[in-house]
Automatic annotation (TrEMBL):
This is Cytochrome c domain-containing protein. The keyword Signal applies. Residues 1-23 form the signal peptide. The keyword Signal applies. Keywords: Signal.
Amino acid sequence: MKKPMKPALFPLVLMLLVYSCTAEQAPAPDPGIEPTACDTAVITSAYIMTTISSKCTNGACHKGTGNFVVSDFSTLEKLKTYLNANESIFRERVTSANADMPPRGKLSEGTRDSINCWLSHGMPD
C-alpha cells in the first residue's frame, strides 16, 4: 500500500505540473513590463501567436468562421491585417485594464503588457 502524499508537498507538485505545461507553449513574458523596459524588450510574433492560439482561436472563436469572420486570428498575417485596421479596439478589448476578451478570463498583466509592447514596436516578426 502506497503512502499518501504529504499535504505540504501537494502545492509544490501542482505548481511544477502547471509550470511545465505552460513553459512548453511559449516563453513566459516578463511580468509587468514597465514602459521603459518595453523599449528594450524583444517580444516575438511566435510568442504572440502562441498566446492568441491558446486564448483566442480555441473553440469557435476568432478562427475566421461563424460570427468571428471579421476578426480572424488564425494566422499571423490575418492577425496583423486585423490589428492594422483595428488596433485601438483590440487594445481596449484585449490588453487594457478594462479588457473583456477573452471571455473566459482576461489575460495576465504580463501577457497584456507583452502584447502591448509588441504592438508598440510595430508587430515585429
